[in-house]
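Person: I keep going back and forth on a fold encoding question. Show me how you would write down a chain together with its backbone fold. Please set it down just below, with no commentary around it:
Helper:
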Amino acid sequence: MEINADFSSRVVVHSDQLEWQASPMKGVDRRMLDRIGGEVARATTIVRYAPGSKFSAHTHTGGEEFIVLDGVFQDEHGDFPAGTYVRNPPTSQHTPGSEPGCTIFVKLWQFDMDDRNQFRKTMADELATPVNGVATATLHKDARETVTYSHLDPGAQMASGAAGGIEVLIIGGSLTSGGDLLSKNDWLRLPEGETLSVTAGTDGAKLWMKSGHLPFAQPPEV
């Protein structure tokens, strides 16, 4: 299966307009943003856990990173409320689920296979002092990628010419970019060489951004 697998093209997905698709696990549904592969895939997905649902124990051979968008995600490592950013590197294991229900934005098989840095962060707690109406937190940075979280005041502008492509998820509020109006749960991916330029709407904006990673995009090693 290939979904938005041309990484040389600009992609905008208004994810709330997509139909939920059932996963192999009852009570867990998903909206696929990009994907290379079948059930084992290099994938970017929004996943919804119904209350009381869970996956069986499994190992993330290619690593997993996710943001809790609403509700509380749970596994044997603890409870992860909305606004939590988590990195589970290759070889990590867990039994994910949610008693109250939750929605997460998750990326699979997109790690350096030698990465063993496992952590969780409350994104808002990491924000630096605002500059020109923009407060940003660096959540993760290595030789392959940089991951940030930003709050933009109403009307504030932000730009990035980072090498290696740029990917943005709107966590809250709204913004405009390249003529597109993007709201909560919308997803934007820019190819390598294209500059990101956004202006927050009247309600401000909260956004997660990753850059530098697209040259490493490839199918999972299975």
In short: The mean pLDDT is 95.
